[in-house]
Design a protein that fits this description.
The protein has a domain of 112 residues: Winged helix-like DNA-binding domain superfamily/Winged helix DNA-binding domain (Arc Repressor Mutant, subunit A, Orthogonal Bundle). The chain is built from eight helices and two strands, in the order ααααααββαα. One of its GO terms (biological process) is response to stress.
């Protein structure tokens, strides 16, 4: 049996004296007696993906493809394997996705100027235009997601999510 009191105390301490802000009517969702954190994170991921599907449908692009393009926008000259790691997909899925995005002219594969045996990926002008066209809508979706939170809580959420990811990647600092 889980020690829900300990979890609730840690959550209140992490979120400050005001406690968690929730739009749910189920008190169990915030007092630790409800679903696990992993379950809630998965529900959030599915809700985000569904809303991103709606936003990106006119561009005929998936949320994973959009994520890959944003990764390339921030980090040019990645290999397909590096893109896979940064886009949360397997190497095979990334290879398939890269082929589709390249066929659509949204990214290009080039010889690495530092290692001519290696191919790197770059966002094309067309890919950048697509990101620019949808950036505001995606930003509005994120704003909608954190609307129930104060700005400090939204910053804390971002930091906590990043820490949790680092813990699972084995890169968290203690």
């Amino acid at each position: 049996m889980r020690d829900t009191g300990r979890w609730a105390r840690r959550a209140r301490a992490a979120l400050g004296d005001d406690g968690p802000v929730s739009t749910t009517t189920d008190p169990a969702a915030v007092d630790g007696s409800g679903p696990s954190t992993l379950y809630l994170v998965k529900q959030l991921e599915q809700a985000v993906r569904a809303r991103l599907d709606e936003v990106l449908r006119p561009a005929a692009i998936t949320p994973l493809q959009y994520t890959a393009l944003t990764v390339l926008e921030r980090h040019a000259d990645l290999s397909t394997a590096e893109l896979a790691r940064n886009s949360f997909v397997t190497d095979q899925s990334a290879a398939d996705m890269v082929a589709v995005l390249e066929d659509r002219g949204l990214l290009s594969r080039l010889l690495d100027p530092r290692d001519r045996r290696r191919r790197v990926l770059r966002l094309t002008e067309r890919g950048q235009e697509l990101l620019d066209r949808y950036r505001d809508e995606v930003d509005r979706l994120e704003s909608r997601m954190v609307a129930p939170l104060t700005p400090v809580q939204a910053d804390d959420l971002r930091r906590y999510v990043a820490l949790c990811r680092a813990a699972l990647d084995g890169t968290a600092r203690r």
